[in-house]
Amino acid sequence: MHVLLVEDDRSLSIALTYKLKKAGMEVTACPEGQEGLEEALSGRYDLIVLDRMLPGLDGASIVRKLRAKKIASPVLMLTAMDGIQDRVEGLNAGADDYLVKPFAADELLARINALMRRPEKWLPGRTAQAFDLVLDMEAMVLAGPSDQIPLSGREGRLMELFLNNAARVFTRNMLMDRVWGGAAVEDGNLDIYVHFLRKKLRSAGSSARIETVRGVGYRLAGRREDGSA
């Protein structure tokens, strides 16, 4: 597995590079944002470990540019900012997970392994659809009656699960396991992504909605073409 590490703290970069290589990974390290972006745009990395604050170009901006160019490599963002809004911004930009500094190197490895165990890869020609929605997994675009909305990789996997199992109630644990692959992530991450998808469903003009099933989890509901619920 080839990992791109974009981190401006030299001592941390050296330590993480050593740890990742010891775990059998090939590592390319970049110390600043613009160089990291150019490397990431090559599309040759299986995973990107990206610092939130970088000289030249910040991590959130890098992720936005990658997703705009359809680079779907999983992104694990490292951040010293543990406020909820900072985490939301990073995830909303298209990052797949985040890790707050300081952290143990073993936790970083666990997060990386969990990301690489994700249930589905984005494969050409695959779509998922239900109600008035069609999800293109190659382009990571959700099409509704009034607009086509780009999704991040994590949003896409969650939306694909809902579309392929329309009206099915998923427990929170089921969603966390299938979308996050068993990673040790904060429970609130799921709620953040459901919030993102609800906004995007509205932007797409869809009648479908992600319903909260109290005490259980979530389900996708909506009206079919015959008007029934």
Keywords:
single chain; 229 residues; alpha/beta; 5-stranded parallel sheet; globular; disordered C terminus
Could you explain how this protein is built, in words?
By secondary structure, this protein is α/β, with parallel strands linked by helices. It is 39% helix and 22% strand. The protein contains eight helices and twelve strands. The strands form three sheets. Strands 2-1-3-4-5 form a five-stranded parallel sheet, with helices on both faces. Strands 6-7-8-9 form a four-stranded antiparallel sheet, with helices on one face. A hairpin with a 2-residue loop joins strand 6 and strand 7 (133-136). Helix 2 (33-40) packs parallel to helix 3, helix 3 runs parallel beside helix 4 (84-93) and helix 6 crosses helix 8 (188-203). Residues 119-125 and 224-229 have low confidence and may be disordered.
Shape: globular
Number of helix segments?
8
Strand content: 15-25%
Q: Return the average pLDDT rounded to an integer.
A: 85
List SSEs in N-to-C order: EHEHEHEHEHEEEEHEHHEE
SSE order and pairing:
Layout: E1 2-6, H1 10-22, E2 26-30, H2 33-40, E3 47-51, H3 59-68, E4 75-79, H4 84-93, E5 97-100, H5 105-116, E6 127-130, E7 133-136, E8 141-143, E9 148-150, H6 153-164, E10 170-171, H7 172-180, H8 188-203, E11 209-213, E12 217-221
Parallel strand pairs: 1-2, 1-3, 3-4, 4-5
Antiparallel strand pairs: 6-7, 7-8, 8-9, 10-12, 11-12
Helix pairs in contact: 2-3, 3-4, 6-7, 6-8
